[in-house]
Description:
Rossmann fold; six-stranded parallel beta sheet; 22% strand
Amino acid sequence: MKTLRTIGEVREAIDPAKRIGLVPTMGALHDGHLSLLRAARADCEVVVLSLFVNPAQFDLNEDLARYPRTEEQDARLAEREGVDFLFAPEPGELYPEGFATWVDVEETGAEGKARPGHFRGVATVCLKLFNIVRPHVAYFGQKDAQQAAVLRRLVRDLDLPLELRVLPTVRDVDGLALSSRNAYLSSEERARALALPRALEAGKAAHARGDDPVAVAQAALNGLQPDYVELVDVGGATLLASAARIGATRLIDNVVLEGELR
């Protein structure tokens, strides 16, 4: 595996004639990320992992400064999974002095309403990564389904020659969706956080029997501070999605009620 730091190095190193798979991440890799790398390795001739904690998708009240940065460990995991290139630029490489061009996607769902400006940062950095790496396929997880929906619209509206694949959420044995932010949770907070996936499953069961999934999920959150519990249409599927705060940590999760993510 070769580590690349600059746009020039990426363009020199990667052969665009080969089928390229890109897994964009902010690092602090877990088994959810590794499942994406394995899918890319199975599908593509060249696998690129990007590690970039994107400042443009954090607002002033969020956790940019404390977001986990574990590049050495991430590099070891990536090499073990057969990644060919690790692209780990500095912020100034992607946002040079005078940077003033942004991508706004108008429909951003409940998560976009809860975090104004967040998806502008996501869409902008992903478009830059797509233009730099020139992948044939980019891989994302279902936990970030609303992000994937925003990026699908970007790909469609801007006519990018790119396929997006959304893979199922990977969960711990107790049901908590894997997230880099889980590392923030104390043992007591982690136990409380299980109310989030359990509430969504309760909402899914309610939907199956004809009851209101949102009301049931809200009632089952057991004292967590939800930003929202909403039905969200994503890529042909209807999701029950929620974001909730456990102490100072904000977690997101969702379950599919109808249809299939694609």
